[in-house]
Every structure is written in structure tokens, then in C-alpha cells.
């Protein structure tokens, strides 16, 4: 106490100018500390207190239940899910579930009415100009659509280009174009022995140089009305020698992490990583989901290492690393929640896998700019868990009531059509949703960022 008094007396004894000298940095340090504490408390459940107030409903954990009993959920749902677009908008108000607790009644779309009106206008008027290349071009394999049906873990990139080139969005008149498509394929360049991983940056730099000198359109905006599509994570580093692409053009990429440099949210967009499937989604009425949660994959990140460390021997959370002895589809159909856990990148095909099999996705990947986040409300059909909260995973999932889980899974069936590719696109599928994200960005940037000096 004496020491505290001495400090106060010393402070008061200083001239006014010195008092200000001590006061300003002290205030800044205190404010910074408070901001850090606020950020930690708002992003982690470690500091959460679950109080039940009618006017303060937590975003995800709305109904607290202390026990978990496996039960057949899908018997209460339509086999093909509810239609995404039907009826009139209803007010989003809290409703009481069967247990008397409040149920989060968030709609799938942020604003369905605006989306519907914009979607119609997008289909009617949106035009894309693709820089042309001939079949005898030495790099036609990377610049033209694939001849075969796309396959593999990064099929989204090939699907988009193949479908776009046959769509009514394409215009041969660049003066009528809203956006310009740079058609190089990062995935195909990566496997081309003439280019490979080490030569992609030089290829992109030279490609942009040629486009900007042969055509006038790039130079009008410094590439701000241009876009490219890439699903492999190399797509992000591919632009290191083409800064105008990275800072000005629209990057539609699967590895959409706003924490890492090179990706700019709202300018750039997330391409959903989807494993191609030709068959119709399964009938879910007969599935029996006895597992609380499921994950299978390689140990290729600290996040997955933590998941394995905490839950590898748990009887309700099935965290498997290595080759499965049971069919992957059966595990997805037999689990209430399916875990999307960050690997090398924030993105994997597991979100689309979960939706396809009617399993509520749990996203454990910080800083992920999720697909179609401008349009759909992810909290209406998924659970987002901070990586810091992996030890609390079971508690978080068990505190989701039966009513809340039914709502989440019902919305899963509504949104899964947005995460499917078709060679002949179907309204509201992955192709049209990506086109809508691009349409939102048309004319958005008329002054290229690279015009501004950066330190």
C-alpha cells in the first residue's frame, strides 16, 4: 500500500507535461490488454458461461442437454430435403422447442429475397469474356477445358472452367463483358513437366505480360475486372511474381484463408472443394446415426495432431488417422456430426462430403473464409469450433439439443445442392453459386490496389 501511495505521489509531483508522458503509454497498454482479453473471450468457449436468458441466446449452443442418446433423426425429414427456394420470408424469431428451451431459427440465406432477385438478374445479364486460345497452343492442356470428366480432390477447378465455357454467360464481345476470365489451370500446370511447381510463378508472370500487351482490357483497371480459379493451394503462391493478379484480380480459390497473405476477403472468393459424384445424394430415412462425431484423415497439421491427442481413444468421437477398415460413406451416414479439421490448408472436401451424406459439419479451421459466405448463413447448418476449443469438443456437441440438431440437419439437406457439380449445371448448384459470387464482385474495384504505394 505504501508503495502504491509513493507511486501516486511521485506521479502528482511531476510537471504536467511529464504526467502526460506517463499517462498516454499507460493508457494505450491498458486498452491493448483489454482488447486482447475481449478477443480471446469472444472466440473461445473456454471463457463462455451458459446462462439462459430470453434476450441473450448463444449463436450455436442454444439448448443445453447434459446427456447424449443416439437416435434416428432422418425419420422426421424429407428424403430429398426441403426446397431451398419456396414460400415467403418469415421473421427470424426464437421459437420454443419440445423441451421448453429456445431454438435457433436462423434461415439458410442471409436475405433470401435479395438473393432471388439478384440471382435472376445475374442469369439474365452477367457476361464473361475468356481470353481465347487455340487447340494447337503449346499449353492448350492448361488453358482449355479438360476433354474428360473432371476427377480427383481438386476437380472443382476443372468443373468450373468446363461448365463456364459452354454456358450462356460467355460473350465473344469483350466490350459487353462484366469480367474477364484468365483460363490457366494451376492444377494442370503443376503436373506439366515443362512447368512443374517451380515454374508456375514464371508462367503466370509471362502470361499476364502477354495478355496486357496483346489486349487493352487488362490495362484499363490493372486487372481489377479479371479473375482466375484454382483449387490446389499452390494457386495462392503462384502469383508471387504477378503482384497485379494477387492484389487486383479476383482470386477464386479453395485455400481461402484470410489470415495468410495473398487472399483478400470480399475482393476474392472461396471456391468449394468438392469430390465429384455422379449419383444422386443418398436417401437418409433409413440411416442410423449412432456416433456423436467422426473424422478420418492424415496427420498433416498441429490442429489434427491436437484432435488425435485429445480424442483418439474416445468412445463417442471417432477420430481416425490412416486407412479406414469400414466404408467412408458408412461412417458419414452413421455419425451425427462430421469434423472438418484443418490440414495443410483450411480447405478439404470434407464439408461437401458431410453435406452430401446429411451429416452436420463441424468446422475446426480458424480464419476460413467459407464458401458462399456472402449468401448463406453457415451457423444455420454447421457448428464452428475454434481450434483452441478442441478439448471442449464433446461438451460443445452434447449441449446441442435434439431440436437444435434437427434444425441443423434439416438445413444441411437444404444447402447440399449448392455443393454439387454437374456437367450440365442445375439452378443453385456449385457452378451457379460461384457465378453469383463473381456477379457480386463485378465492377466492385475500379481502382487497382497496386496503384497505391505500400511500405
TrEMBL record:
Q: Name one GO cellular component term.
A: Golgi membrane
| Database matches in PANTHER family | EXOSTOSIN GT47 DOMAIN-CONTAINING PROTEIN (PTHR11062:SF95), EXOSTOSIN HEPARAN SULFATE GLYCOSYLTRANSFERASE -RELATED (PTHR11062)
InterPro entries the UniProt entry points to? Exostosin (IPR004263), Exostosin_GT47 (IPR040911)
The opening ranks of the lineage are:
Eukaryota, Viridiplantae, Streptophyta, Embryophyta, Tracheophyta
**Sorted UniProt keywords:** Glycosyltransferase, Golgi apparatus, Membrane, Signal-anchor, Transferase, Transmembrane, Transmembrane helix
Localization terms from the record: Golgi apparatus membrane
Exostosin GT47 domain location, by residue? 123-399
- Which top-rank group of organisms is this from? Eukaryota
Q: Which family does it belong to?
A: Belongs to the glycosyltransferase 47 family.
Indicate where this protein is primarily found.
Golgi
Name of this chain's protein: Exostosin GT47 domain-containing protein
Amino acid at each position: 500500500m505504501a508503495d502504491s501511495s509513493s507511486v501516486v505521489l511521485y506521479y502528482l509531483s511531476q510537471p504536467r507535461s511529464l504526467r502526460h508522458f506517463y499517462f498516454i503509454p499507460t493508457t494505450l497498454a491498458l486498452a491493448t490488454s483489454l482488447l486482447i482479453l475481449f478477443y480471446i473471450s469472444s472466440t473461445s468457449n473456454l471463457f463462455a458461461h451458459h446462462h439462459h436468458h430470453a434476450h441473450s441466446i448463444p449463436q450455436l449452443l442454444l439448448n443445453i442437454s447434459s446427456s447424449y442418446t443416439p437416435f434416428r433423426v432422418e425419420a422426421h425429414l424429407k428424403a430429398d430435403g426441403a426446397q431451398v427456394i419456396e414460400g415467403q420470408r418469415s421473421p427470424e424469431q426464437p421459437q420454443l422447442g419440445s423441451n421448453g428451451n429456445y431454438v435457433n431459427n436462423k434461415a439458410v440465406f442471409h436475405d433470401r429475397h435479395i438473393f432471388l432477385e439478384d440471382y435472376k438478374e445475374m442469369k439474365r445479364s452477367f457476361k464473361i469474356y475468356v481470353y481465347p486460345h487455340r487447340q494447337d497452343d503449346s499449353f492448350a492442356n492448361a488453358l482449355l477445358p479438360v476433354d474428360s470428366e473432371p476427377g480427383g480432390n481438386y476437380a472443382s477447378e476443372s468443373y468450373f472452367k468446363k461448365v463456364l465455357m459452354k454456358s450462356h454467360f460467355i460473350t465473344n464481345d469483350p466490350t459487353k463483358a462484366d469480367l474477364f476470365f484468365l483460363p490457366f489451370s494451376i492444377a494442370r500446370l503443376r503436373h506439366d513437366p515443362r512447368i512443374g511447381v517451380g515454374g508456375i510463378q514464371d508462367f503466370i508472370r509471362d502470361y499476364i505480360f502477354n495478355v496486357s500487351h496483346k489486349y487493352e482490357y487488362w490495362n484499363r483497371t490493372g486487372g481489377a475486372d479479371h479473375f482466375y480459379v484454382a483449387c490446389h493451394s499452390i494457386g495462392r503462391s503462384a502469383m508471387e511474381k504477378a503482384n497485379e493478379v494477387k492484389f487486383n484480380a479476383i482470386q477464386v480459390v479453395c485455400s481461402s484463408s484470410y489470415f495468410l497473405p495473398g487472399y483478400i476477403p470480399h475482393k476474392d472468393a472461396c471456391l468449394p472443394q468438392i469430390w465429384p459424384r455422379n449419383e444422386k445424394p443418398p436417401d437418409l430415412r433409413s440411416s442410423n446415426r449412432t456416433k456423436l462425431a467422426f473424422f478420418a484423415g492424415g496427420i498433416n497439421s498441429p490442429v489434427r495432431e491436437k484432435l488425435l491427442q485429445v480424442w483418439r481413444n474416445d468412445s463417442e468421437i471417432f477420430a481416425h488417422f490412416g486407412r479406414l477398415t469400414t466404408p467412408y460413406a458408412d461412417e458419414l451416414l452413421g455419425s451425427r456430426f462430421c469434423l472438418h479439421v484443418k490440414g495443410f490448408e483450411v480447405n478439404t472436401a470434407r464439408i461437401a462430403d458431410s453435406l452430401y451424406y446429411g451429416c452436420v459439419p463441424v468446422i475446426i479451421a480458424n480464419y476460413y473464409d467459407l464458401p458462399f459466405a456472402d449468401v448463406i448463413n453457415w451457423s444455420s447448418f454447421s457448428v464452428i469450433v475454434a481450434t483452441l476449443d478442441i478439448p471442449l469438443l464433446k461438451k460443445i456437441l452434447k449441449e446441442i439439443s435434439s431440436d437444435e440438431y434437427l434444425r441443423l440437419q434439416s438445413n444441411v439437406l437444404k444447402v447440399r445442392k449448392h455443393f454439387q457439380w454437374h456437367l450440365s449445371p442445375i439452378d443453385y448448384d456449385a457452378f451457379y453459386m460461384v457465378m453469383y459470387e463473381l456477379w457480386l464482385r463485378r465492377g466492385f474495384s475500379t481502382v487497382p490496389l497496386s496503384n497505391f504505394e505500400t511500405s
